[in-house]
Automatic annotation (TrEMBL):
GO molecular function, one term: GTPase activity
Keywords: GTP-binding, Nucleotide-binding
Biological processes per GO annotation: mitochondrial translation
Protein's name in the database: Putative mitochondrial GTPase
Family annotation (PANTHER family): MITOCHONDRIAL RIBOSOME-ASSOCIATED GTPASE 1 (PTHR45782)
Organism lineage: Eukaryota, Fungi, Dikarya, Ascomycota, Pezizomycotina
Nucleotide-binding is among the record's keywords: yes
Amino acid sequence: MASEFVPRAAFPVLNNVSRSYFLGHHKAGLDKMKQMIQNVDLIIECRDYRVPLSSTNPMFEQSLAGRERLVVFTKRDLGKGNDGARVGGLLAEPIMKKWLEPSHVLFSDHKSPGTTKKIIEYTRKSARITDSLVGSRMLIVGMPNVGKSSLLNALRREGVGKGKAAITGGQPGITRKIGTTVKISEDPVIYLLDTPGVFIPYVPNLETMLKLALVGCVKDTVIPLTTLADYLLYRLNLHDPRIYAKYSPPTNDILELLTAMAKATGRLAKGGVPELEGTAMWLLGRYRAGEMGKFILDDVSKDAYENWKKAESEAEPSASALRREAKRERLRVSKAKYESKNSPSVE
Ligand SMILES: Nc1nc2c(ncn2[C@@H]2O[C@H](COP(=O)(O)OP(=O)(O)OP(=O)(O)O)[C@@H](O)[C@H]2O)c(=O)[nH]1
């Protein structure tokens, strides 16, 4: 019976999970952004609504300081009920706004013109250069896959009524370089620049890494899919295990859940053996599409942001941990390159 089920109180510490995903184009992108900030009026920094703390990249604060910053929590539709997310009975959004004072905070859903409109209005107020030939320039930055390009396209649609200008995609790393300028307003003239997502060189907290991977900021090749599905199960159980009731009674065993899901959805290999990896990918896809509950994965309380920043700064990695991660990342990238070179080509 569901009432007798006791979810795991903590997720086990795993040593096989990489804590790094800092790629060449992340560093190059950040260096270029640093050179550009002199000429921009506003930095729109995107963070994911479902992980408002974990998707904060302190490198943006350090490298892009001195410019006005608007923080936009993206993918609001994936983390909330009708009146915005509630955490412990309290509305989360006013707390998230308070965390970041004096920076201005807005929330977005790329398909909701209302949220996009508010961002456009804010950019118009922040535009300092109103000469229509030069125009005002703004940068959109954030972790990989937080929805920067989608927001840029939505702003363009809302602001000047034009179609898609930037390519978007379900996996991180779609935008590799700082793109061309895209006009998002005529009066005053405002150009927005899309930038590649930038990850953190080392994520000290294992759970932060798992949360970022769960929401899609890390490529699905970095952390084993069944580990990620297990972390999702841990979170679903804390939230409401009835979410997967169609497939299984409440369980703390990911293999049990994946097996039940594989059977129910026909993900079976020869001899009826459940395809666990494929089922884990399917489950993650359903969560990312908002079909496995909508909730915030980070702590949202008055002091959570300060506590998180303090914990992050105290957890500086040792030089040897950084070297180990850099080596692990190099090996992972060269293995992926080797595998893609040697995999059969698709016509
Ligand atoms: N549900 C929902 N999905 C969104 C939203 N914004 C973006 N997405 C989806 O999230 C994925 C990533 O979006 P992108 O706009 O490509 O993200 P990005 O930050 O530009 O990614 P990089 O190029 O890796 O830096 C895509 O599948 C989008 O459709 C949103 O507000 N709601």
